[in-house]
Amino acid sequence: MGLGPYLFLAILEGLVQASVLTVTAVGLSLVFGVMRVVNVAHGEFFMLGAVFAWFLSSLFPDNPALGFVVALIVAPTLVGIIAYLADRLILKRLSYDPEATIVATIGLLYILQQAALIFFGPDAKAVEPPFYWRIRFPWFGYDGYKLVIIAAAIVLMLGVWFLMRRTKIGLVMRATQLDRETARAFGIDVDSVSATVFAFGGMLAAIAAVLVVPIQQAHYLMGLEPLLLSFIVVIIGGLGSLPGTVVAAILIGLSDGILSVFFSPTLAKMVSTLLVALVLVIRPNGLFGKAER
Amino acid sequence: MTPAIARRNFILLVVVLVALFLLQFVVPDYYVLTITRIMTLAVFAIGYNMLLGYIGLMSLGHAMFFAAGLYGAGLLTYHFGIAVPLAFLGGLITALLLALVIGFLSLRTQRVSFMIVTLMFSQVGFLMTLYFADATGGQDGLKLPHAARSFQLVGLTFDLTNEIVRFNLAFGLLLVALAISFFILVSRRGRIFAAIRENEGRTEMLGFNVFAAKLEAFLYSGAIAGAGGAAYGLLDGYVGSTFASIQYSIEVLLFTLLGGAGTLLGPLIGVALMTTMIDRLSEVTTAYLLVVGVVLIVIVLWFPKGILGTIRERWLPWLM
């Protein structure tokens, strides 16, 4: 196999990574944009999505496709309910104070993670893909399900774009993001917008996890990596900027996928984390973000 | 800070320290080990409190300073056979230099950005301990050699396999860390730190160099945390990458918040309570970190000033 096909494989893998990362990071970005809350528990919503998907699909051992569909609907719904409750019971009481909510979501991270450990055990769980379909390229065979992930991510992002730009609820969210006080003055129930956005952000992470869990595995400690990657993406893309987040996710996902093929994944992560920390030091609003007022 | 208040706090500090010292003659061996660990971790938390409590900066990456001290000291004994006191000094200096670089960079950011930046730098440090596994032992860590289990100083031999020796060394370090905190608090620097915590803009307007003061606090904080790490590694005879992980950054935040950020003895109380709770719970379940999450949320919702902070607010306004 020459360099060309090798690079092609790396790009494909990178695109799959980028797709999952985009969906996850957009959830985090929405929450930060609209609520100004840095949700440290975002990775745990991802983890819960994966673990619920494993549990739900294990209820249908003979029919993985049906199990997958059930998981795709029920797992994000459950996560959305948990996130909604977390907002109502914890974040709202803190009046969304930026520092207090970080501490609170760190607490939430531990509670969700340890609860997953209690209820689902410490072992990694494999989930059957909904179908087996092998694409035969001239140089190598490739798992067709991975292409479905990419397609699903594109559809989801179009959906989010439509929701934010073309619907009433999107308008309300954008108004809240722009100016909370004025939005309230115009009769928008800002608190319930926040709860909805928090739930929606968590659901996006859960959907990403349901999509990726057939090619990864569900484990109660799996949340940290998507969390840190999403942080990186949201920072590079500009805090709270959705298009920036998508561009950055594709960039980071691709480069991480490609670099990991040629270098050690630890080194790739080390360098990218360091670079992002420096970006935040030098340009606190990210590369694509506008200066904050 | 009137001299009378300072004197009262000083007396309280002395009483607590004497009581702590006397514990080694009273409690069974097992608790001597536990209290040694608590005192060493308390040094880490006292360093953290310097930043969070006195100048009001919340770092989410202090494990990197703890780990810098730990590895700085541990690797010197492991790879170069450096004597324990010098290795401790090496760990301290490593943490101090790291604090200088990280402080210089991260103090350019504010509030939430500061938290994320420190978190990320610390994560880089953690990944480095894994990447350079040839030197650090990676996830498995390194058991320090037999030669590093004892040392001689001023004509005395200290045997680190003896738990009473370890207890008293940890006690000595805790005493020094608390003394440094106390003298900073009653000094002019301490008042500038407090002014920055209460109103950064006004302090700057009054002509104080806020960045320099923050960097100074950052250096104290990093160095004390590093000293805690160096002592932890040397006393325990083990260094490993767990100590550089996010969990340790979070736990030190939790210790400080629980005991009361900005109180002299809060970190010690927080560490003692939290380690006891975690130890008890780990006997019952593997999911013992649940208590970390629950306590964090309870603190942030109902108890934001922590134990000593609440006591100060309600009953003892003179408490430092």
What does the model show?
The complex is a heterodimer of chains A (293) and B (320). Chain A has 293 residues and is mainly alpha-helical. Chain A contains eleven helices and two strands. Chain B has helices at residues 3-26, 29-55, 63-80, 84-106, 111-131, 133-136, 163-186, 188-198, 200-205, 210-236, 246-259, 266-284, 290-302, 306-314, and strands at 142-143, 150-153, 156-159, 238-239. In chain B, the strands form two sheets. In chain B, strands 1-4 form a two-stranded antiparallel sheet. A two-stranded antiparallel ribbon of chain B has the order 2-3. In chain B, α2 packs parallel to α7 and α3 (63-80) packs antiparallel against α4 (84-106). Chain B is globular, with a radius of gyration of 19 Å. Chain B starts with a helix and ends in a 6-residue tail after the last helix. Classes of the chains: A mainly alpha (293), B mainly alpha (320). Chains A and B meet through α4, α9 and α11 of A and α5, α11 and α13 of B.
Detail the topology: elements first, then pairings:
The complex is a heterodimer of chains A (293) and B (320).
Chain A: H1 3-35, H2 42-57, H3 64-91, H4 98-120, E1 134-136, E2 141-143, H5 144-166, H6 168-178, H7 180-185, H8 190-212, H9 224-237, H10 242-262, H11 265-282
Antiparallel strand pairs in A: 1-2
Chain B: H1 3-26, H2 29-55, H3 63-80, H4 84-106, H5 111-131, H6 133-136, E1 142-143, E2 150-153, E3 156-159, H7 163-186, H8 188-198, H9 200-205, H10 210-236, E4 238-239, H11 246-259, H12 266-284, H13 290-302, H14 306-314
